[in-house]
Amino acid sequence: MNPSIAAAVEILHNSALVACLTGAGVSAESGVPTFRDAQTGLWARYDPQRLASPQGFADDPGLVWRWYMARLAGVERAMPNAGHRALAEMERRWPGFALITQNVDDLHERAGSTNVIHLHGNIARFHCHDCGSSHNVQIEERTFPQPPRCALCGGNIRPSVVWFGETLPHSSLAAAVAAVSACDALLVIGTSGLVYPAAELPLIAKRAGSRVIEINPEPGPLSVLTDVALRGPSGELLPQLLGIGE
Ligand code: BV8
Ligand code: ZN
Question: pLDDT of 46-96, one tens digit each?
């Protein structure tokens, strides 16, 4: 076993409570583009931070609608990978294991995780941008060039994700802060650590005395907080933390 993996396993075995924060990187091996490389092909010329914002939606609701319909189709085609499955196994093995995700896909749930804190919502759920009433998108509405209209107020229907400039669901953020404040070890997996307030969670954990283990092929702004850095793909490394797939 490589010495970093051994050090991470040691920390986890000496931790009564383990928490985990995932980003788009945990879904990369499932073929879901990460947020920064989400701009492949025909979307290459658009800035995701613009499309994923109320202003972007106001400027061109049809463009944003079509971008989300394309991403949703990609998520539905994707399958959970060994990293998602290892995290579901951690929830089964370690009482109190908390999984916090920035991702809007449902791959953690499809891998068997049952208690997932979604900080940024869910791309497969929809509501009216004006009155907030929820909306089930019909198959034919997915091919519409413009978003469907709300039956109650006529407003534009949008995905129930948190856009840039929008506040996170208070209950999710509070649960995430409580989990990272209480944990003895925090796994930070597949995140560039650029988006706030999610990127603040590892700092809160560290200040509360937690050890921090980063799993990411690349270092990033959060690496300075890291006790152990595992530089590689989470689909390969996470099973090794459980002694699977040596
Ligand atoms: C808010 C849903 C209050 C939509 C998303 C404080 C300081 C600075 C800025 C701010 C601040 N507070 C607020 C802001 C503004 C803004 C922000 O953070 N901007 C940044 C860019 C500077 N934050 C907000 O607006 C938030 N709202 O704070 O409300 C408020 C209100 C008004 C005014 C001010 C404040 C809302 C943020 C939520 C935005 N919504 N998603 C959608 O998905 O369409 S964020 C979106 O981007 C994703 O959900 C995800 O969270 C984020 C992308 O981050 P990552 O997941 O890290 O993915 P990324 O592609 O960046 O990196 C992938 C990583 O994986 C890389 O490190 C790579 O190396 C690694 N990797 C690749 N392959 C693998 C791998 N790792 C492991 N294995 C592999 N195989
Ligand atoms: Zn409405």
Answer: 888 899 999 999 999 999 999 999 999 999 999 999 999 999 999 999 999
Whether residue 165 contacts residue 188, with contact meaning beta carbons closer than 8 Å, is answered with no
Catalytic residue list: 120
Note the ligand closest to the C-alpha atom of 149.
Answer: 2
pLDDT in tens, 3-27: 899 999 999 999 999 999 999 999 9
Residue 199 CA: nearest ligand 1 atom is 18
| Residue ranges with CB less than 5 Å from ion ligand 2 | 128, 130-131, 150, 152-153, 155
Whole-angstrom Cα distance, residue 79 to residue 230?
A: 24
Same domain, 142 and 217: no
Residues 84 and 189 grouped into a single domain: yes
Ligand at minimal distance from the CA of 101 is 1
Q: Contact 78/34 with Cβ under 8 angstroms?
A: no
Angle between helix 3-13 and 234-241 (nearest 10): 50
Q: Please give the residue range of the domain that contains residue 46.
A: 33-77+123-161
Q: Are 226 and 184 members of one domain? A: yes
147 Cβ below 6 A of ligand 1:
no
112 and 217 part of one domain: yes
Looking at residue 46, what is its pLDDT? 82
Specify the ligand 1 atom closest to the Cα of 29.
80
